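stage 2 :: seqdesign
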C-alpha cells in the first residue's frame, strides 16, 4: 500500500432529473438520490487506504493498451474497438485544443461487465459513496477510472478519461474548470463541444430568472459534492466560450493551464478575464450572448 498525499475523486451521476425521468430503472434510482453529480474527497481518502489497487475484484479478463490508457475489462475487449480508438484520439484532441503536452503517465480504466459487479466493487472499496455511473480518482500513484459497461459508456468514458489526460499534466486544475473541460470533451467528436443538455438547462434557467453568471462562485467551489447541475453547465459554458469565440480568449485559457502547471497559486481565470477582456459585467454579457447564440430558436 502506498502512502497517499493527495487523493481526488470525481464522480458523475445522471445529467438531470428531467433526463432521468425518461430513462430506465437504474437511472431512476440515481434520480431519487439526487439530480446532480456527486463526489466526496473524504470518502475517497478513506477508500484509498483499503488497497483497491490490489483488489481481486478488479476487472482482469482482458487488457488493452492504447497510448496512455491501460484498459482492463471483465469481458473480451478488442484493441480496435471503436470506443478504444476514440479514447486514444481524445488524448490528441485534449492536448491540441488546450495546448497541453501529452504525458506518458498511465491512465487506468477499469470496465466492469455490469452494474452488479461495479456496485459491489465500489461499495466495498469506496464505502458510503453515492450511486454514480462512473468515477475518476487521482492518487499520488495512479490515475484511474471505474465504470460499468452500459448504454452511456462512451460519454462517461470520454468524460472520465479527459480528467485522466488533464490531471496527468495539470494536477492542480481547479475543480470547476476540471469539470467544465470534461463536460466539453465528453461529447462525440463531431459536436465540437456543443452540449445540448447544458444549453437547454441554462437557457431555461435564464428564462426562469433563477440563474446568474458568476465565475468567482465557480472558483470558490472546493468539493465536487458542492457541484450542482447549474455549476456543471456554467463551467462547460465558460470553457466553450473561451474555446469557440475569439483566438484571444482561447489563448487566455491555454495560458492559464500552462501557468497552473508551473504554479497552482497562479492568478485565477476571473482575474485574467477582468484584466484582458474587460470587467465581470462585460464578460458576463458576452457569455450570455454566446449561450443565446447556441440556443435553438
Ligand atoms: Zn467529472
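stage 2 :: out
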Amino acid at each position: 500500500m502506498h502512502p497517499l498525499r493527495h487523493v481526488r475523486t470525481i464522480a458523475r451521476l445522471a445529467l438531470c432529473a428531467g433526463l432521468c425521468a425518461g430513462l430506465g430503472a437504474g437511472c431512476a434510482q440515481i434520480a431519487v438520490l439526487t439530480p446532480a453529480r456527486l463526489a466526496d474527497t473524504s470518502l475517497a481518502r478513506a477508500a484509498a487506504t483499503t488497497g483497491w489497487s490490489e483488489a481481486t475484484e478488479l476487472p482482469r479478463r482482458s487488457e488493452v493498451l492504447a497510448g496512455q490508457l491501460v484498459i482492463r475489462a471483465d469481458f473480451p475487449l478488442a484493441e480496435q474497438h471503436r470506443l478504444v480508438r476514440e479514447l486514444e484520439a481524445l488524448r490528441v484532441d485534449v492536448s491540441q485544443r488546450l495546448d497541453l503536452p501529452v504525458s506518458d503517465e498511465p491512465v487506468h480504466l477499469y470496465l466492469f461487465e455490469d452494474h452488479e459487479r461495479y456496485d459491489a466493487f465500489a461499495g466495498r472499496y469506496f464505502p458510503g459513496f453515492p450511486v454514480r455511473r462512473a468515477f475518476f480518482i487521482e492518487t499520488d500513484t495512479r490515475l484511474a477510472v471505474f465504470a460499468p459497461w452500459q448504454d452511456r459508456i462512451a460519454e462517461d468514458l470520454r468524460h472520465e478519461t479527459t480528467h485522466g489526460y488533464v490531471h496527468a499534466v495539470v494536477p492542480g486544475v481547479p475543480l470547476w474548470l476540471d469539470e467544465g473541460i470534461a463536460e466539453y470533451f465528453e461529447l462525440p467528436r463531431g459536436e465540437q463541444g456543443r452540449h445540448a443538455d447544458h444549453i437547454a438547462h441554462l437557457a431555461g434557467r435564464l428564462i426562469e430568472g433563477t440563474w446568474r453568471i458568476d465565475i468567482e462562485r465557480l472558483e470558490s467551489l472546493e468539493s465536487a459534492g458542492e457541484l450542482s447541475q447549474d455549476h456543471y453547465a456554467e463551467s462547460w459554458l465558460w470553457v466553450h466560450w473561451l474555446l469557440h469565440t475569439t483566438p484571444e480568449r482561447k489563448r487566455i485559457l491555454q495560458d492559464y493551464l500552462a501557468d497552473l502547471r508551473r504554479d497552482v497559486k497562479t492568478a485565477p481565470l476571473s482575474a485574467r478575464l477582468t484584466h484582458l477582456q474587460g470587467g465581470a459585467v462585460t464578460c458576463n454579457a458576452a457569455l450570455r450572448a454566446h449561450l443565446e447564440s447556441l440556443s435553438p430558436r
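stage 3 :: structure notes
- Strands lie at 8-12, 62-66, 69-73, 107-112, 134-138, 143-148.
- The two ends are 55 Å apart (CA to CA).
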